[in-house]
Design brief:
The chain has 303 residues and is α/β, with parallel strands linked by helices. The chain folds into two domains: 81 residues, Arc Repressor Mutant, subunit A (Orthogonal Bundle); 214 residues, 3-Layer(aba) Sandwich (D-Maltodextrin-Binding Protein, domain 2). Helix content is 43%, strand content 24%. It contains twelve helices and ten strands. The strands form three sheets. Strands 4-3-5-10-6-9 form a six-stranded mixed sheet, with helices on both faces. It is elongated. Pfam families: HTH_1 (PF00126), LysR_substrate (PF03466).
């Protein structure tokens, strides 16, 4: 039978990157850790680490073992939390991955309906690149991924993309910066300092194509994978920035910026990606229904 204490020692060393660091965290001697990992390797009949100079690197078997260990200890933590909680205070867990490209305000608006169910929900949010979140979804560490695009073609993950809605984009500028522009919209953007989403954002290509069609040549002064960081630079007056029109009022109010123009010729789309073709998780159903019925519905009617 697998010795889970030895597996935990292996997992700790793999996460720490060295036996010395892991021994400090576990309050054990390096010799003890080395001995326990050696016993685990003997029991499994494979080498889990290779020594490269002073560094330890995982073997192919070690990487496989680490993926299982991650899941085992996560499930163990969830089991402990479930058993410690009182039956009358049982909550529905909702593990959500949020793609870096999705604005935080949009993510908040999409997830809020899950927190208003009759049965309480405990939400756990992870933010990362879409490709890494899809891996987490595939091994069931996540129930849902929020993204600005459907699941990419050719992905080795079996999942389903549920479109939540779409909207145009709005351009903002810090008031003193906005006051410098006197040309009509959208010519105001020509040669103007502009902050744009990073290359991994789905809207990036459509935005650049729109500039070409309109024969606009803004001066790009910054590219950002994180929309919140882009908005912070925009608030400081570094350049004009964009956000989905569905949250234009919140962006204007929270950052004290001025709306200088809008377009529906460039749209942002938002998706819920799950392992289910037909949604069954009550919190995910609430997210999907509210997005269609309220969040994006008003914008569709206004077009």
């Amino acid at each position: 039978m697998l010795n889970y204490k030895q597996l935990h020692y292996f997992w700790a060393v793999a996460k720490a990157g060295s036996i010395v660091r892991a021994s400090e965290r576990l309050h054990l001697t390096p010799q003890t850790l080395s001995g326990q990992i050696r016993l685990l390797e003997e029991a499994l009949g494979v080498a889990l680490f290779l020594r490269v100079g002073r560094r330890l690197e995982l073997t192919e078997a070690g990487r496989l073992a680490l993926s299982y260990a991650d899941e085992i200890f996560q499930i163990g933590n969830e089991l402990e939390e479930t058993l410690r909680s009182r039956p009358e205070s049982h909550t529905i867990p909702l593990r959500v991955g949020v793609d870096d490209a999705v604005p935080k305000t949009i993510a908040y608006k999409l997830l809020t309906p899950a927190m208003t169910l009759a049965e309480p929900v405990r939400i756990v949010c992870r933010e990362d690149k879409l490709v890494r979140l899809l891996v987490e979804l595939a091994i069931q560490r996540l129930d849902l991924v929020l993204a600005d695009r459907p699941m990419p073609a050719g992905t080795n993950v079996k999942g389903y993309s549920h479109k939540l809605g779409d909207c145009g984009i709005t351009f903002f500028a810090e008031p003193r910066l906005a006051a410098r522009f006197t040309r009509p919209w959208p010519q105001i953007l020509d040669a103007a300092p502009l902050l744009i989403p990073g290359k991994e954002a789905a809207i990036r290509t459509a935005l650049m194509r729109w500039f070409d069609v309109r024969q606009l040549r803004p001066h790009i002064v910054g590219e950002f994978d994180d929309s919140a960081l882009m908005q912070a630079f925009g608030q400081a007056g570094i350049g004009i920035f964009i956000a989905p029109s569905v949250i234009a009022d919140e962006v204007q109010r929270e950052h004290g910026v001025t709306i200088i123009g809008r377009t529906d010729e460039v749209t942002e789309q938002f998706y819920a990606i799950s392992m289910e073709r037909r949604l069954t998780h009550p919190a995910v159903i609430a997210i999907n229904d509210t997005a269609h019925r309220e969040l994006f519905a008003n914008l569709q009617q206004a077009r």
